[in-house]
Amino acid sequence: MATVTAEEVPTLRVPPKPIEGRQMELEAKETLQRVQLMEQHKQSMNKIAFDAATEEFRRRKVDRDHGGTDEQAAETFGSVQSFYLQMLEGNVGRGESSATGIKMNSERCQVLCRILEQDKTLTSLHLARQDLGDEEGPNIARMFKHHPKLIKLELEANRLGAKSCRAIADALQVNTCLTHLSLDDNPLSDNNRDYSGVEALCEALKRNRTLQVLSLFRVGFGETGGKSLARALKSNSTIIVLDIGENQLSPQVHQAIAEKVKLNRLEWEARETQAREEREKERAAQQAAIRMMEKMETEFMEREDQICRRNRRLEKQYWELETQAVREQEDWIKAVRTLEEKRREDLEKAAKKKKKGKKGKKGKKGAKKGSTSANRTRSASPKKKK
Hints:
By secondary structure, the protein is mainly alpha-helical. It has eight helices and six strands. Helix 3 (106-118) packs parallel to helix 4 (137-145), helix 4 (137-145) runs parallel beside helix 5 (162-174) and helix 5 (162-174) packs parallel to helix 6. The longest helix is centred in the C-terminal third of the chain and has 135 residues, at 251-385. Mean pLDDT is 77; it is low at 1-20, 64-78 and 88-94.
């Protein structure tokens, strides 16, 4: 049960549901974008497969120059390319690929591993029951040794022996991502003839700090491998699921391994519980902070609303006072003009009156002079008669 995917198709963020017509339009656009992304994904991965196949073709051509034929090179080129295209078409999920139903051989496995070394999105690889021999194990180990995302690798029911086991052990000492590894039904000890791979795997478990699930059902561990595994688990605190059935282990070794795995599981559950509680506390704190922020925002908005209402009220009062001041100024200007006009009129009247008074005085003076001369004439005339 093993799977391989090339490149993860990015998920699109679904917008919140608006009105029905707008929602249908958004869904149609989203579907179109997904189709376009899938096409880009296929094109890019097809290019990777084509480049890998081309490289294999060149290598075959070099072999042809040393004794091969053009027909063999062309056959390898076509078969490798068609193989990986089948892998893409049979993709079972994002970040996961499977070679189930595709006939595997050494060349295909080598090209596949070379391609997957460049694929940084793969999370699960299933190469079970592919009749992979001991020569393919190092290629697989090299592929996942520094892979940043691969967490699950299933290689059960193949022909991986001591050589493959040593390569996988070497990769496990470096890898910091893989959590699930299945090696069921593989002759890791070459049918109890070579325990070097088993010993290397046990040494790797002392250093590895990410592997949690390890399946070693019917791999030919034997009593020697079982004791090495029991000693290695004393320095391991991450293995929480371990299948070692049908490996001819003594009850004492089997019990020691089971007790250590159980202890690891209990410690893991305690850590998970503590981590879950801490996450819940953090989530509660975040929610409390969000509620506090919402409350502060609500208070702020209310305060802003009060300030806006107060400003509007003050602005209204200001304009009322401004209007009143303008009216009072107009009334004052009007009163001043009225007073000025009245004063001018009074001055004009006074000037006219004064002018009339002067004319009357002149008339009186003339009349007085006339009467004086007349009196003088009268007084003079009788004297002459006498």
